[in-house]
Every structure is written in C-alpha cells, then in structure tokens.
Amino acid sequence: MFCDPQAPWQKGSVENLNKRARRYLPRDAPVAALTNRDMKSICDRLNGTPRKCLGWKTPTEAFREELMKLR
Fold first, then answer.
1. Contact 42, 24 (CB under 8 A)
2. Which of 7, 31, 47, 71 has the lowest tally of Cβ within 10 angstroms?
3. Which portions of this protein are annotated as coiled-coil regions (predicted)?
4. What's residue 1's pLDDT?
5. pLDDT per residue over 18-64, tens digit each?
C-alpha cells in the first residue's frame, strides 16, 4: 500500500513513531551530525518503551517473543 504525499493520516503508525522520535531529536537538529552512539541511544529508548498496542511490552520484548516462536 502506498500513501499519498502530504497525507499523514494515511500512515498513522509512521507518524506515531516520528512523534516519539521527536522527543529525543528536535526537528531542527542536524541528523547528519549525530554519531552512531547517539542513534543507538535513541533506538534503545524507542525500543525499550512499553506500548499499549503490544500489551504493554516493549518492542524488544515482543520481537524476542516472536523470534522464540520460530525456534
């Protein structure tokens, strides 16, 4: 499925993730100036935050559970 340009309501989950990322990375922050360590820290925070849609598990926990099902 493709979304129309300038139609954020068509991609709610992406917009939600963008909003979460903006907590740690302001809009005017130069992304190119971030180090790998900075990016990893932001990713760790995002993946370590419990989500209602995952039954209050973190994305990391939910991903590990799915991986264990494949074994």
1. yes
2. 71
3. none
4. 62
5. 889 889 888 888 889 999 999 999 999 999 999 999 999 999 999 99
Please give the model's pTM, rounded to 2 decimal places. Answer: 0.74
Question: Can you give the chain as a three-state secondary structure string?
Answer: CCCCCCCHHHCHHHHHHHHHHHCCCCCCCCHHHCCHHHHHHHHHHHHCCCEHHHCCECHHHHHHHHHHHCC
User: Residue-wise over 31-55: b if at least 16 C-beta within 10 A, else e?
Assistant: eeeeeeeeeeebeeebeeeebeeee
